[in-house]
Amino acid sequence: MTLSVPVETTNFRVDIDEQGIAHLVFLPVGGMPVTDARGHAALADIWSTLSAHPQVKAILVRSEGKAFCAGGELAMVDEMLVSEAARQRVMREARDIVRGMINCSKPIVSAINGAAVGAGLAVALLADISVAARNAKLIDGHTKLGVAAGDHAVIIWPLLCGMAKAKYYLMLCETVTGEEAERIGLVSRVVDAEQLQADALQIARRLAVGSRSALEGTKRSLNHWLHAAWPAFEASLAAEMMDFSQADAREGVAAIKEKRAPDFNRASV
Question: How far apart, in whole angstroms, are the C-alpha atoms of residue 142 and residue 153?
Answer without folding.
Answer: 10
